[in-house]
């Protein structure tokens, strides 16, 4: 088919690439059911504990976590009107509370986002989730979509998003309920021998093309190694969006993918190009370049990297680490049996570690309950925290007791115990965990940035 005269050659190419990417997601099975048959006239639709709705400033539906967007058009029109009425008064609505439901609003230019929740999450936590959902839209359409909606208020952007974006946003919201990565704005590394990680970094570093910006080796949602150019930083939010993209398309596993992607913290004005290939199981290599003609060069780079990883034996080591049984708090040997879980963030590395959950927080629902407790404590700490001095906060509930210790610029640690643990015992356990982390930090974190 001929390219419409209104499009430049590059725009036409990007449009065709979007169609191809969309096909990658056609057979992707969502971890969370969409319930597309539901709408706001259906009582079942209101039974969901958390909704996320997105519309344009003209009231055009863009996305709904549950239900059919077209059938929710009138409902989204009301949301748009509420926000617009506040703006006419030169004010912004941030949140509303109606009974057990909390409405949190986020305005991003002509895009309106709202979370309707009865999960008990705070305004701040829900706003963070909306921020990431908005960034996910930008990764596909770039920041230019704001200008498009301002100039054409009635434009329906759902045709540009398609199933691709719907899948990514739905999975992002689902993962955010169970992982601290989005709330803490950091990533988790695969636990790996320090020498092995350094060799892998050197391998990635030794193979590059002129326009290569980033090389990222992932084991599922965990980072194995990362290399970047000196004047560009891969911000944790961009890395989380990349991880979401790579891991939530089954079709990517069957071959090599070449896709335009916008990394908002790098630039919202245009695309970079991602070469994605799964090397083995959940182990994937993503090579990000500024040149859309680099596919064959990056294909050769991947071949050389894979060959070197096999030669050094690092590929086998990584596979063993992936297959290894997840570690728990029992492996830390604190000798304090009230300890059931902990969460640690390194501010300098922008990375976190957390053991696999044990009873009573095993399973999907258990992880959600655990994350809910951590988020509640994080909110309390943000209120009392001083930027200069450290903060210690102890919170006890019927479910658990959580000790938080925050030292700005250094670390945050949240330790979960059985409900009746004495505060002194909790502090002792926290200190022992910190000593263990210091001993094992070489295998738990990427301590040094690899740059070209």
What does this structure look like?
With 452 residues, the protein is an alpha+beta fold. The chain contains 12 helices and 17 strands. It has helices at 9-24, 73-88, 123-141, 144-151, 158-176, 181-184, 194-206, 236-247, 295-312, 314-323, 363-384, 423-444; strands at 50-56, 61-64, 95-98, 101-108, 111-117, 187-188, 212-219, 222-228, 256-261, 272-280, 283-289, 339-346, 351-353, 391-396, 401-407, 411-417, 450-451. The chain has a 6-stranded mixed sheet, sandwiched between helices. A 6-stranded mixed sheet has the order 9-10-11-7-8-17. It has a 5-stranded antiparallel sheet with strand order 2-1-5-4-3, with helices on both faces. A hairpin with a 4-residue loop joins strand 1 (50-56) and strand 2. Helix 3 (123-141) runs antiparallel to helix 5 and helix 7 packs antiparallel against helix 9 (295-312). It is globular and about 55 Å long. Residues 1-5 and 24-30 have low confidence and may be disordered.
- What is the H/E order? HEEHEEEHHHHEHEEHEEEHHEEHEEEHE
**What integer value in Å does the Rg equal?**
23 Å
Q: What kind of sheet is the major sheet? A: 6 strands, mixed
Helix count, DSSP H or I runs of 4 or more residues? 12
| Class inferred from helices and paired strands | alpha+beta
Sheet-strand content, in percent, reads 15-25%
Q: In which range does the helix fraction lie?
A: 25-40%
Lateral arrangement of strands in the main beta sheet? 6-13-12-16-15-14
The overall average pLDDT, rounded, is 90
* Poorly predicted segments: 1-5, 24-30
Query: What is the number of strand segments?
Result: 17
Shape verdict: globular
């Amino acid at each position: 088919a001929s390219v419409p005269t209104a499009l430049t050659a590059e725009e036409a190419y990007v449009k065709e690439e979007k169609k191809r990417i969309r096909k990658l997601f056609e057979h992707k099975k969502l971890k969370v059911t969409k319930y597309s048959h539901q709408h706001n006239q259906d009582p079942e639709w209101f039974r969901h504990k958390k909704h996320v709705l997105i519309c344009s400033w003209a009231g055009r539906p863009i996305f709904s976590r549950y239900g059919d967007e077209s059938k929710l058009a009138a409902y989204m029109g009301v949301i748009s009107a509420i926000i617009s009425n506040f703006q006419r008064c030169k004010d912004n609505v941030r949140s509303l509370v109606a009974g057990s439901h909390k409405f949190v609003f986020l305005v991003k230019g002509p895009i309106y986002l709202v979370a309707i929740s009865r999960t008990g999450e705070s305004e701040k936590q829900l706003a963070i989730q909306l921020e990431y959902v908005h960034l996910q839209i930008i990764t596909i359409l770039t920041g230019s979509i704001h200008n498009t909606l301002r100039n054409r208020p009635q434009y329906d952007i759902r045709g540009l998003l398609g199933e691709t974006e719907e899948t990514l946003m739905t999975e992002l919201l689902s993962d955010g309920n169970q992982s601290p990565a989005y709330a803490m704005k950091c990533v988790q590394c695969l636990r790996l021998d320090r020498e092995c990680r350094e060799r892998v970094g050197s391998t990635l570093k030794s193979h590059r093309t002129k326009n290569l910006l980033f090389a990222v080796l992932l084991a599922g949602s965990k980072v194995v190694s990362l290399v970047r150019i000196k004047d560009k930083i891969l911000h944790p939010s961009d890395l989380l969006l990349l991880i979401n993209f790579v891991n939530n398309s089954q079709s990517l596993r069957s071959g090599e993918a070449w896709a335009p992607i916008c990394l908002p913290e790098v630039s919202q004005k245009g695309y970079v190009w991602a070469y994605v290939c799964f090397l083995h199981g959940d182990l994937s290599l993503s090579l990000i370049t500024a040149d859309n003609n680099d596919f064959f060069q990056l294909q050769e780079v991947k071949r050389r990297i894979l060959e070197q990883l096999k030669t050094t034996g690092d590929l086998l080591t990584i596979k063993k680490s992936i297959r290894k049984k997840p570690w728990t708090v029992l492996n830390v040997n604190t000798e304090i049996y009230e300890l059931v879980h902990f969460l640690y963030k390194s501010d300098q590395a922008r990375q976190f570690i957390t053991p696999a959950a044990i009873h009573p927080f095993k399973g999907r629902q258990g992880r959600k309950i655990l994350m809910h407790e951590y988020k509640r404590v994080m909110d309390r700490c943000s209120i009392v925290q001083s930027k200069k001095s450290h903060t210690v906060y102890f919170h006890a509930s019927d479910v658990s007791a959580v000790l938080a210790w925050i030292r700005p610029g250094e670390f945050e640690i949240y330790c979960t115990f059985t409900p009746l643990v004495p505060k002194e015992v909790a502090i002792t356990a926290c200190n022992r965990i910190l000593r263990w982390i210091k001993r094992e930090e070489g295998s738990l974190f990427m301590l040094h940035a690899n740059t070209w």
